[in-house]
Amino acid sequence: MTTEIPADIPQETGWDTAPGLLDGAKELILTPERCNLAYWLRGVAQGTLAGRAETGHSPQAATPEHMREPGPLREALIHELGLRSVSEERATRILGHYVANAPGIPQMEFFATQLLDETRHAMVFRRHLVELGIPEAELLTYIADLAADYRTRVLNPLEEWALPIVSNPKDFIGAVAIFTIVVEGVLAPAAELSERKWDLLDPAAGEIAHGAAIDEIRHLTVGSTIIRDALIEDPGYRPRLEQILEQGMQLWNEVPDKEIVMPREYLFQEGMQAHTDLLKEYEVWPGRRLLDTKPEERYAMAQQWTDEMAEVRMKYMGLGSAQQER
Description:
The protein is mainly α. The protein has one domain (11-51, 63-317): Orthogonal Bundle (Ribonucleotide Reductase, subunit A). The protein has twelve helices and two strands; from the N terminus they run αααααααααααββα. β1 and β2 form a beta hairpin. It is globular. The two termini are 38 Å apart.
């Protein structure tokens, strides 16, 4: 659906004009001075969210009946959105440190808007679970049970490592790197894959993923600029930053995120076979039909996108090589 938006909406926040996440993260250069509170109120609230503020999707992007029926496809999406909602909730809570420790007004305003973005993502992921048939009165308990293993084995170790850094004003640039490189830099390509997977199978879920991706472009590019400018101003912080990045990527190597994510890819694999007519011409990436892909292939492609995006962003930040292999 194309929504009428004001002419002064920035291209990168317009629903139909924003680039894809991978291209936007690699090509755009955005600054905290540009992406301030006024920018968010105009470009995001009146652009990205126009007609989609409460649910993350337009009324026309309905959830098909087949997504409300018990089965592997519905189960795969419930698992994905349930885990993403708790990730975004955890991000929201930790971003309060970024607002408190921001060294200037532009950084403070930007991270205040990112905090709101992550809060909104968690909300629309939860709300779509209700649209998929999870009783609203049981929703929070349902998610807590669903994501218990993920919280314990993935989110808790990451937060325990990150919290001493992000809560220390002297490590503000390291804190920005944790979000920009270690967390969102790793997870963003998987979110891109999600949008592509659900586009036809559940248009509402596809729109929810698209709106979140528009936000992630801004988070990745502004964060990269903050890090680049900080290293230019204080080259002596580089060894500390490199130490934080090394620790963060080592931790990603240790937590069992793939072990937890892959079962839902196998559920998706099984579920999409019932919709061959809908998907018969659909390419999940150029030259590759979604129906022809396998779970390991899709996971590997998300990893490839991670490496490609990291190489470009790390070079822009003046950090040289890409992230360590996960």
